[in-house]
Amino acid sequence: MDAKGNPPPAPQGNLLAQVPVDRTAERFEALLERPGLKIERIVSNGQASPKGFWYDSAQDEWVLLLSGSAGLHLDGEAAPRTLAPGDYLHLPAHCRHRVAWTDAQQPTVWLAVHCEPAAQG
């Protein structure tokens, strides 16, 4: 609320607008951050995880592929999972994974939600 008691303006955007093309590195853009929560847009242009590198986060991650395509390799699986627009995947905390490949012909746009894992009861 501002000094007059009005709520702050509601931010608006489009995840597929102004998509950066950067062949040297993936681009990460935080859209919303709160304690224990981060929502971000990730744009890949042919990038992959470095050989032998695995993500291993203490948070859960839920990803949605919006455009392009990608191969996501989960530790213990024989081959990467192929993702197309509309495909999503929930990666529980400490689910080791790596980006095997992303589309080199067009930007691959991801929506990623990082949050604290559910309490184990």
Automatic annotation (TrEMBL):
Q: Where is the signal peptide?
A: none
Q: Name one Pfam family in it.
A: Cupin_2
Q: Which Gene3D superfamilies match?
A: Jelly Rolls (2.60.120.10)
Record InterPro entries:
Cupin_2 (IPR013096), RmlC-like_jellyroll (IPR014710), RmlC_Cupin_sf (IPR011051)
| Stretches assigned to the Cupin type-2 domain | 57-113
Superkingdom of origin organism: Bacteria
Official protein name in the record: Cupin type-2 domain-containing protein
Q: Organism source for this protein?
A: Cupriavidus basilensis
